[in-house]
Amino acid sequence: MLRLFGYLVLAGLLACNVSTLTAQETEQKQAGNTQAAEKSDERTLEQKVCFLIGFNMGEQLKGNGINVDMDQLIAGLKTALANQDLGMTPQEAQGVMLEFAQQLEAREAKKMEELALKNTQEGDDYLKGNASKEGVKTFDSGLQVRVISKGAADAEMPTAESFVRVHYTGKLVDGTVFDSTEGRAPVQFPVSGVIRGMTEGLKTMRVGDKVELVIPSNLAYGIEGRMPRIGPNALLIFEVELVEVSQRSDDE
After folding, report:
1. Active site residue 179
2. Of 190, 205, 207, 196, which Cα lies nearest the Cα of 137?
């Protein structure tokens, strides 16, 4: 909401006056299209700025799912630019925006609650189906591990205090990749510095092993998720290759 207020204030400060807006509206209606708006080289700098302010406002409103009343939006702009009275006290205006912000928060909370329930059901179904697959081991925590390929039997295993270097790809239940080292060098991080399911899975591996980790949401990011890529209560699927174990970070 603050960004939206910012655009409105900026619109009032720039030389984007009512007559300019009215002229542009008339020209576009006569032309029957938005060709004038698209040909930015035919507009003044101020006209371009006004267009960009309007565009950004539209993006913000659309992103927040707000049903825009164009008549009221334009009326508000014209009122401010003409230095006319708002028609309500600052306290009343603040109350209106507060009430609306509360509505937006309630709507977002409901949306997240519904998404959390959906992700929980999909995660439970996936865990049940995956548990019966060949080679899958389910731990008491709910973590599921499937060995894809093994390194040397005497290769080093990490502990909670170790640093590891790995290649990995993280996916959601629907197969969406939310993070990956593909095409990049393997990354190093502390075993105890990641989500619980990853920490537990790494401690079952030896250098050279490649495994699939199916991590229930309570061992990942839980109800909070990591929006927008990882929703609430999302189950995560990682393919992990352990490249190296060390006792210190590269940064030390």
Report:
1. yes
2. 205
Selecting among 51, 124, 179, 223, the annotated active-site residue is 179
Residue numbers of the domain that contains 121:
115-246
Domain count, the chain: 2
The active-site residue, picked from 168, 209, 215, 230, is 168
From 7, 126, 163, 238, the catalytic residue: 238
The verdict on residue 174 lying in a domain is: yes
Catalytic residue among 126, 221, 230, 237: 221
| Known active-site residue 126 | no
Can you give the pLDDT at residue 15?
39
Q: What is the pTM of this model?
A: 0.71
Q: Measure CA of the first residue to CA of the last residue in the chain; give whole Å.
A: 43
Q: Look up residue 55 and give its two tokens.
A: 């565009």
Residue ranges in the chain whose pLDDT is less than 50: 1-30, 33, 36-37, 40
Task: Identify whether residues 40 and 161 lie together within a single domain.
Answer: no
Same domain, 119 and 242: yes
Q: Is 100 a catalytic residue?
A: no
Cβ 165 vs Cβ 243: under 8 Å:
yes
Residue 156 contacts residue 245 (beta carbons within 8 Å)? yes
C-alpha to C-alpha distance for 187 and 166, rounded to whole angstroms: 6
Contacts 24+ apart (CB under 8 A), 101-110: 101/1, 104/1, 104/64, 104/65, 107/65
